[in-house]
Amino acid sequence: MNADYTKQTPNLIDGSNKRSLAIILAYVIVFFLAGTFVAYLVLLLYALINHVDPKALYDSEGNLAGDAQLFVGSMTNFSVYLVGLVIILLLAKPYLLQDLESSRNNTKKFFVFIGQGILIYYVGNVIGNILTELLGITGDSENQKTIVALLQSKYVAIVLLTTVILAPLIEEIVFRKAFFDLLSKKTKMNSITIIVVSGISFAMIHFVMAILDILLSEQGLGALLSELIYIVPYFISGLVLGYIYEKSERNILVPITIHMLNNILSAILILFFPNLGM
Predict the structure, then answer these.
(1) Under DSSP, is residue 64 helix (H, G, I), strand (E, B) or coil?
(2) What does the pLDDT look like over 133-146, one tens digit per residue?
(3) Rounded Cα distance, 156 and 74, in Å
(4) What is the pTM of this model?
(5) Could you tell me the CA-to-CA distances from 66 to 71, 122, 136, 153 in Å, in that order?
(6) Are 91 and 30 contacting, i.e. CB atoms less than 8 angstroms apart?
(7) Partners of 64 in the beta sheet?
(8) Burial of 82: CB neighbours in 10 Å, binned 0-12, 13-18, 19+
(9) CA 191 to CA 204: how far, in whole Å?
(10) Between 142-151 and 208-216, two packed helices, what is the crossing angle to 10 degrees?
């Protein structure tokens, strides 16, 4: 792995630091500030379609239940990811064009990176599975349970589009391309440190809402720790994707492709082989 990548490869994109920061800020704003508003609009839409009072869609504990929960979850995720993708693609266009040109100029090298990346990713998965067993991690996180429930619902088509296409595109551009570019130029971190920071951020982002729910519902420290332990598999996945990105000479199309392939395989397992798990 090349710890001095940015010194050896000149950056061809003007204002890349500001662009990378804008990508990260756009992600935070769209997914965490606008996301709540979008969820409320989707809830109102569901109530309007079904001619019911929105308040009637909540159970005694104040949670959405049944089909309303599945509709709001799937449509909110899709809407937020779609809006987020449009904004982030506009911001990341120079990065993507540069990496696309690099891939076209050396197609063989690109597919070698893909092959190596797939091998590295699944070796990482094996190591991750061994580690989770050693740590005694069983069952699924709340995030994973939600994904499984949505994939097994009648809204599966929209969920597949979100998880297989939109999510990998956005997450790799944000947590690999933008994070690596910004930290490489604004800090003294080497590649290994950046991979770790990116991996932690990637893992935490999948648990923000679950953690907030636990804190707001005052379930206690035990519930919080029980959920946080599930961060380990996501952290390992983030580390591996970061390493693949670095190994591929920071061509963002490589981890995007591998992330998509992994999510496709995971979806197939959930839909057709549910007893095997992910």
Answers:
(1) strand
(2) 887 766 677 778 88
(3) 8
(4) 0.87
(5) 9, 35, 31, 10
(6) no
(7) 58
(8) middle
(9) 20
(10) 110
